Amino acid sequence: MDLHRNGTNDSCPSSCGPLTDYCIPDYVLKPDSEPVIVDNAPSCPVVVFINSRSGGQLGSGLIKTYRELLNEAQVFDLSEEAPDKVLHRLYCNFEKLKSNGDLLAIQIQKSLRLIVAGGDGTASWLLGVVSDLKLSHPPPVATVPLGTGNNLPFSFGWGKRNPATDQAAVKSFLGQVKGAREMNIDSWHIIMRMRIPQEGPCDPIAPLDLPHSLHAFHRVSDCDSLNVEGYHTFRGGFWNYFSMGMDAQVSYEFHSERKRNPEKFKNQLTNQSTYAKLGLKQGWFAASLTHPSSRNIAQLAKVKIMKRPGGLWEELKIPRSIRSIICLNLPSFSGGLNPWGTPGTRKVQDRDLTAPYVDDGLIEVVGFRDAWHGLVLLAPNGHGTRLAQAHRIRFEFHKGAAEHTFMRIDGEPWKQPLPKEDDTVVVEISHLRQVAMLANDPCKSKSVNDPSSPSCHGHDDDESNSLEDEDEWEDGRKKFGAAATFKIPDEVDIAHLS
């Protein structure tokens, strides 16, 4: 294949040696650049997105190292340029070069891989943008753990500890990206609608100034098909989880504190320690004494599920003691814990529960009473209260049950005011589409199509740490800019939300 181009020298630094496997020449990245001579197409071309504000000072250090090893033009600081603009420009240039018969551009587009370094919110932001491109073969994404929880990287074998930033560490990571396999994961659309209150706001309240990576919700425009007169409608989506209740409240306080005193949050260990202290302060470890029962999930909202596409809505019984509910897509929550586990044979037969596959069109719904309940996840086969697996889930808030609640999507929390005068507030989650991730071994996430994925056999008794019978416990600026990814699909009937 002739990949020669006339013009200047290759823009990859000569010192990078074998890293030419990953380098992309300037003229592919920059539409107005002069063509270069390239003897061979890079075997694993990458575009790197790094949130310099993540991981204390690590983000800036990673940017420096990646730019030393690769073409500077293929490494982007997300605090300076949004990924949607970068990828739109890149793919427009791909089409232009391909129309001119450029074989190198064709090869690079075919084998392109993306790397994103940041927290879960940053990774979710990029996944949404990639999904928006609606390409026949979208580039798969590898995630560098650079946040506090790092659930997305951990789910796909990239670890959960913040990485080293030296050249040897970055070269090692690039080698893993080159050898990684692709795995599709489900994405989830979420819509929230409520009647315009007579007084007070109903917009989601961010913990001070949340970064623009938050794609949790945005208000739909007046011309949007989802807009209903007299109502406020928000929509967004997620890849890992949506949670509501006390866990989101603790997360909200953590993000607020970090925004007020950023100098105190310079490394992952300090962040995790502060998170635990705030959990104590907010009463998450003594929720039965400090948490208003009116904010327990069953007292706050009616929950309905649709188990399969096109099925009927049915009410989900939520034990009265549940204070947090998590709708989980990946097997990692709160820094790598798996709230769902692998149901035993009896659960499969009695309740139609399966292992948590990331591409089966089902979301796992798990409940927790308090942080002590969460500690059961540290035990072998431990898990939360398994409530359901569903294709769609709907929360209908009770009239005047509370002034507000706390919600969280992929690590990004907010405080949600609730109107007092009616019960029209609805949050609905539905399956949307899929996107490709890069998986490294050992990978926690499992595909329904992977024969090595866990079965339910051999787990006949996973109940020893579950405390599943809740009856035992009854007595005791771009501020919310959403990726277009999470627009509701045409085939979904949302008439009932009106």
UniProtKB/TrEMBL annotation:
Monomer. Phosphorylates the second messenger diacylglycerol (DAG) to generate phosphatidic acid (PA), another important signaling molecule. PA is required for plant development and responses to abiotic stress and pathogen attack. Its EC number is 2.7.1.107. GO terms for biological process: defense response; phospholipase C-activating G protein-coupled receptor signaling pathway. Residues 461-474 have a biased composition (Acidic residues). PANTHER family: DIACYLGLYCEROL KINASE (PTHR11255), DIACYLGLYCEROL KINASE 5 (PTHR11255:SF98). InterPro entries: ATP-NAD_kinase_N, DGK, Diacylglycerol_kin_accessory, Diacylglycerol_kinase_cat_dom, Diacylglycerol_kinase_pln, NAD/diacylglycerol_kinase_sf. Residues 41-194 form the DAGKc domain. This is Diacylglycerol kinase. It catalyses: a 1,2-diacyl-sn-glycerol + ATP = a 1,2-diacyl-sn-glycero-3-phosphate + ADP + H(+). It comes from the Eukaryota. One of its GO terms (molecular function) is ATP binding. Belongs to the eukaryotic diacylglycerol kinase family. Keywords: ATP-binding, Kinase, Nucleotide-binding, Plant defense, Stress response, Transferase. PROSITE patterns: DAGK. Residues 442-478 are annotated as: Disordered. Residues 446-455 have a biased composition (Polar residues).
